[in-house]
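Section 3.1: Structural characterization of target chains.
Under the original work plan, the team committed to producing a structural model for every single-chain target entering the pipeline before any wet-lab resources were allocated. The record below documents one such target. The sequence was received from the expression subgroup and is listed exactly as submitted; it comprises 127 residues.
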Amino acid sequence: MNRELASDLAWGIGIVVLALAAKYARTLGYIEDETVTRIVMCAIGLMVAWFGNRMPKKFVPNASARRAARVGGWSMALSGLIYAALWVFAPTQVAVVGGSAAVILGIVVTISYCLSLRSKARTRPSP
């Protein structure tokens, strides 16, 4: 198993374990239902930020792909951090709407930038 796959699995297993531990703490009366939700959703936001941070560090074959990975990495890392912060500090309705909007905006920025790079590459004259 390669290192990247191991870290991906660790994130998935970690979030499941965190969710189960939070649920157990709620069952014992230590925390409330909303706190369980906030803990798990914050962890998901941190996971999005983690993967976004890793995107630019991946080996890519050409300059356009590196630029796309850099922009995508920044947009996803920032949207994941905003998502996590909203789930920690904002009212639930704001966290749902704002967090979802942040992640969707990160995806839209990434896709838009990739499409703009693609259209620029198509308009360049061939040597």
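The mean pLDDT is 89.
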